[in-house]
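Subject — a protein and its fold

Tokens — whole-number codes for backbone shape
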Amino acid sequence: MRAPLLGLAAALSFAGVAQAADLTVTIQGVRSADGYVMVALFDREDAFKERKNEIAALRLRAREGQVSATLHDLPAGTYGFAVYHDENGNSELDANLLGMPTEGYTFSNDARGSFGPPGFADAKFGLDAEPLKMTATLSY
């Protein structure tokens, strides 16, 4: 009788542990190998909106066509990412006098906003214990 109780105790001890998974992000439509592709991952609407307090950030060497990277062991939850192609390497998304980006950008789900970036509701996606692969395409 002791062995089944130990198995049950072990199963219950892991029930409260959040599962972790890998997220692979592929960014398509990179127009040149100049600079870097910057990816920021957010887990809260306010952080996504302000583009601050990301939970993970990637700086990928740009390569014409596409770049990919994997974030490992992320806890299950809801996320959204923002991406830009920092062609001149100044660590900023450059814009013209009207505020329109002059470098490529995209968001998870290829979400688009009206007169500005999309909201978290349009860009969010769920991550559970299974690995997830997502693709987004830069707009220039």
User: Anything to note?
Assistant: The helical segments are 2-15, 45-50, 120-123. The two ends are 66 Å apart (CA to CA). Residues 2-15 form the longest helix (14 residues).
